[in-house]
Design goal:
single chain, 347 residues, alpha/beta, 9-stranded mixed β-sheet, 6-stranded parallel β-sheet, 15 strands
Length: 347
């Protein structure tokens, strides 16, 4: 199966494809994990970008992808390129027997994302996804509470991503376009919080959504979206997402159950149980919700990468599998389809 690799041991040799804006926290994480992973290659199509990037110590720079594909010592590859390049790259990597950790989203649409997952399945290589909010300490603690039933049955939930991006952010070639990114705020920013919500609640049965481009930005895709999610047990959830909320606010997720309520905001979990007990876990973290999209600590990235390395060594599934990451893209497509048609979409 694509999410369950064969066993490996020792210090893993990795390669990285992509050295753009989003590579920073990955390279910092690799530096922290240097005793466990050696970066053999860093590939980018743009030689100038390679020359200026702060690469891991000892990594060879290359504009030739075949150097990675042909290096039998490279066991796994991080794919940090724009979303519309992921499928073609992962197809070649999987056929070369390389395990893959891909930056979110999997691809620009659900069909291409599903193809990406399927090729890893068919080639028997692992596919992990950088959806790092799932491995924040507060998020894992909430998952444990839900698993033990301490909040009871889900009644309602909400997810809010009120971020800010300047027009200059969207003036960068390809940003906020359907062809390169697959969309706007939903697939690029809010996907993290939506993925976390769905990892707790599972897929809804029906989705109603609205999305548009506000007067704040000139861009092809949406910078504002709202959705109502209906669940089989009668529970409901709302989603608000925008990059037009100046100056940017922490993302927030709330779950209301029959035994208590929980909120996650910028890495902090607050729980109020109906028996009078309370719980607080985590510490305040920057999320990149303001003008600087990279203004956040890389600890959660490191946790996903650590888990990826361990999964390769132990021959188990990673914490964030490619198949599980499909849920957020399925809901995003449903929101956009509902917005176009004005009708709810059944999943």
């Amino acid at each position: 199966m694509g999410d369950a690799p064969g066993k490996a041991s020792g210090r893993l040799r990795l390669a990285v494809i992509g050295a753009g804006l989003g590579s920073g926290p990955h390279f910092k994480s690799l530096h922290d994990l240097a005793s466990e992973a050696e970066v053999a290659w860093v590939h980018a199509r743009d030689a100038t970008r390679l020359a200026t990037a702060q690469l891991p110590h000892g990594a060879h720079k290359t504009t030739r992808l075949e150097n990675i594909l042909e290096d039998a010592s490279v066991q796994a590859v991080l794919v940090l390129t724009p979303p519309n390049t992921h499928l073609a790259l992962v197809q070649r990597l999987a056929r070369a027997g390389k395990h893959v950790l891909v930056e979110k989203p999997l691809e620009i649409d659900l069909a291409r994302a599903q193809s990406l997952v399927q090729v890893c399945d068919s080639q028997g290589v692992m596919l992990a996804v950088m959806l790092q909010h799932r491995l924040r300490p507060a998020a894992t603690r909430l998952r444990a509470l839900l698993k033990t039933g301490e909040l009871g049955q889900l009644v309602s939930a909400s997810a809010s991503v009120r971020w800010w991006r300047t027009q200059s952010y969207y003036d960068e070639p390809g940003r906020g376009t359907l062809a390169r990114d697959g969309g706007g705020v939903l697939i690029t920013q809010a996907i993290h919080t939506l993925d976390l919500l769905l990892s707790y609640t599972g897929l809804p049965t029906r989705v109603m959504g609205l999305a548009n481009t506000s007067p704040v930005h000139t861009m092809e895709a949406e910078d504002c979206a709202c959705a109502l999610l209906h669940y089989a047990n009668g529970a409901m959830a709302t989603l608000q997402a925008t990059t037009a909320a100046y100056p940017g606010f922490p993302e927030r997720l709330e779950l209301n159950g029959t035994l208590g309520s929980a909120s996650l905001e910028a890495g902090v979990l607050q729980v109020a149980f109906m028996n009078g007990q309370t719980l607080s876990v985590g510490s305040q973290q920057d999320s990149g919700g303001g003008t600087d999209p990279m203004a956040f600590d890389h600890a959660a990235h490191r946790a996903v990468l650590q888990d990826f390395l361990d999964a390769v060594r132990q021959g188990r599934e990673p914490a964030v599998t490619g198949r599980s990451a499909l849920a957020a893209q399925q809901v995003i497509e449903a929101i956009m389809a509902s917005s176009r048609s004005g009708c709810p979409v059944t999943l």
